[in-house]
Amino acid sequence: MRSFLMYLGALAVILGLLQFIPTYEKKDYPTDPKLEVKAPKKVMAIFKRSCYDCHSNKTNWPWYADVAPMSWVVRRDVVEGRKALNFSIWNSYSDTKKKELKKQIYRSVVLAMPLPQYLWLHPEAKLSKEDKKIIQDWASDGKGYIDLEVR
Ligand code: HEC
Q: Which end of the chain is less crowded, N or C, counting CB atoms within 10 A of the terminal residue's CB?
């Protein structure tokens, strides 16, 4: 019993110390609503449900974004996610960049997004077949298909 309590104590100390390790900043930026992406309602609904936590300035931060070690993963995903694609500043991107991002969005819904560690705690964000088609139609400007050329 005594050694069990010692382990527990040591664990608490370690977890406590982890909190002091610097990590990504948890920050929200005020954004001009005019810069936000404009898309049909059903597309926006999917983006907001499944992508906005990491790809917008309207992140819904969970409580564990303040608790290491979970905070390391959550904050990294949001900071890196916004860097790659931020729907809140979509209209500040050049036409070339928008085109490139649409291609990546088209591809990302098949391959990688939303990230698995996010889906684990946000099962409602999972994209259905129908959701993917809606996003791909939008990303391909209604053509339904983008030639992604192998790189
Ligand atoms: C849990 C956070 C998270 C969610 C939710 C999320 N993403 Fe991402 N996304 C990232 C991160 C982090 C990156 C940065 C690059 C990386 O890790 O490869 C990224 C990168 C991207 C990129 C850039 C190209 C690429 O594939 O690297 C696109 C496009 C993208 N995401 C689209 C989406 C879409 C569309 C959704 C919603 C259906 C979504 N993401 C949901 C975290 C997320």
A: C
Task: Express each pLDDT in 13-31 by its tens digit.
Answer: 999 999 999 999 999 998 9
Whether 113 maps to a domain, the answer reads yes
Q: Which residue has the tokens 């992406």?
A: 37
Domain assignment present for 147: no
Distance 19 CA to ligand 1 centre (A): 26
**How far apart are the CA of 143 and the centre of ligand 1, in A?**
23
Neighbouring C-alpha atoms within 13 Å toward the C-beta of 148 = 16
45 pocket-lining for ligand 1 (C-beta < 6 Å): no
Q: Which domain holds residue 105?
A: 2-139
By the 10 Å C-beta count (0-12 exposed, 13-18 middle, 19+ buried), 102 is classed as middle
Which residues are CB-neighbours of 5 under 8 A, at least 6 positions away?
none
Two structure tokens written together for 61: 């931060």
Residue 69 within any structural domain of the chain? yes
Ligand 1 contact, 74 CB (< 6 A): no
Q: Is the pTM of this model over 0.70?
A: yes
